[in-house]
Design goal:
Shape: flat
Oligomer: single chain
Helix content: 55-70%
Strand content: 5-15%
Number of strands: 2
C-alpha cells in the first residue's frame, strides 16, 4: 500500500523505502518505555535527527502541480504526500511492536523467541497471501494488452 500511494502522490519510492529504516528508532523508544532501558543524551539526539531528516526528505514536493497524471496508461488523481509517509511510518512501527511482543512472550512464558517469531511470520504470510488473492489480483479490465 505504501508504494501504491507513493506513486499516486508522486513521491520518490526510494524516499519511502528510507522511512522503513525507522524500525530501529521505534525499537529503541518502545524498549525504553517497556523495558526501562537506559539511554544517553547522544541517543536522544541521534533519534531526533533520524526522525527529522526522514520526514524532511519524505515531504519534499515534486515540481509538477498537476492534479492528474498518467500511470500505466490511465489518468489518476494525485493524492497528498502524507498518505505514503503515514503508511511508511506505520510499517516499521508494526515491525517494532512485533519484535517487542516476541521479547515479552520470551521473557514471560519462556517460549523460544525464534519459534514464536517463525510462527507469527507464518501467520502473517498466510494473511498477506489471502489479502493478495482477494484484493490485489488484477482483473481483465485492468490488464492492457
Amino acid at each position: 500500500m505504501t508504494f501504491k500511494y507513493s506513486i499516486l502522490a508522486r513521491v520518490n519510492q526510494g524516499v519511502i523505502q528510507s522511512l522503513f529504516s525507522l524500525t530501529s528508532v521505534f525499537l529503541i523508544i518502545i524498549g525504553r518505555i517497556v523495558f526501562h532501558e537506559r539511554m544517553r543524551l547522544i541517543h536522544y539526539v541521534g533519534i531526533s535527527m533520524m526522525i527529522v531528516c526522514s520526514l524532511l526528505i519524505s515531504f519534499s514536493d515534486d515540481n509538477s502541480k498537476a492534479k492528474k497524471f498518467e500511470v500505466m496508461g490511465e489518468e489518476v488523481d494525485k493524492v497528498s504526500s502524507l498518505y505514503p509517509v503515514i503508511f511508511a511510518i506505520l510499517c516499521p512501527l508494526s515491525f517494532a511492536v512485533g519484535s517487542i511482543i516476541v521479547r515479552i512472550v520470551h521473557i514471560k512464558f519462556s517460549i523460544a523467541a525464534t519459534d514464536f517469531k517463525l510462527m507469527t511470520n507464518l501467520w502473517s504470510s498466510i494473511i498477506m497471501v489471502l489479502y493478495c488473492l482477494t484484493f490485489a489480483v488484477p482483473t481483465s479490465s485492468t490488464i492492457k494488452i
